[in-house]
Every structure is written in structure tokens, then in C-alpha cells.
Amino acid sequence: QVQLVQFGGGMVQAGESLRLSCVASGRTFYVMGWFRQAPGKEREFVAAQNRGGTVRPADSLKDRFIISRDDAKNSLYLQMNNLKPEDTAVYYCAAGGALVSMAQGNGVTNWGNGTLVTVSS
Fold this sequence. Notes:
Blueprint: E1 3-7, E2 10-13, E3 18-25, E4 31-37, E5 44-50, E6 55-57, E7 65-70, E8 75-80, E9 89-95, H1 99-103, E10 110-111, E11 115-120
Parallel strand pairs: 2-11
Antiparallel strand pairs: 1-3, 3-8, 4-5, 4-9, 5-6, 7-8, 9-10, 9-11
């Protein structure tokens, strides 16, 4: 059974940092990434990375959010720095497809269960 299990999240104050983790089981994925969905808004692409190390970040977040992966552990990470209240959302790990298509919201074959990040002012 293929699963994406997420760890991390929680409540922090503005300006603080948080790290999310996602562990894939059952198979390996060439492309893995992160999305988020804020209350009342559509799901938004955050960043993706392929096994070759190429990163595709969302332009609006690339200065504060850093994606990385450890293929030996079949894991994906999202380091979120200088968090702002507008970063409050449920964050989802995603896998599958190609780098460009994932950035466009397409081609994702597997989703994590989501983890809530709340940033207070």
C-alpha cells in the first residue's frame, strides 16, 4: 500500500520557523512536493523537487520556504522560515507526475493526509 505520511506542523508565532516532513512508503517517487490550502481558498502549490535534485518553488514563497528530500529515507521536507499569519493553512505532501505539471497542480497521484500549520500574529 502506497502512503505519504506527514509529520510536523502545529502552532507558531509570526517570525518563527517550522519544518514539515513526509515519508513515502510502498514505492519511490521521482517527483514529490508540497501544497497548501488556507481556509476558504483553493489548494496552492508550494514547491516540488525531483530525485535529480531539481527544485521548482512557488515564486512567492521561495525566499522563505525551502524544500529538500532524502531519497535514502524516501522522505521529503519543507523548511518554513519567517512564518506569517497568511501562511496559516493545511499543508499537503504530494507525489507523482512531473516537476512542471505538479507546479501547475496536475499529475499528482498520491497525497498525504495533511497537517495544519497555524501562525499567530
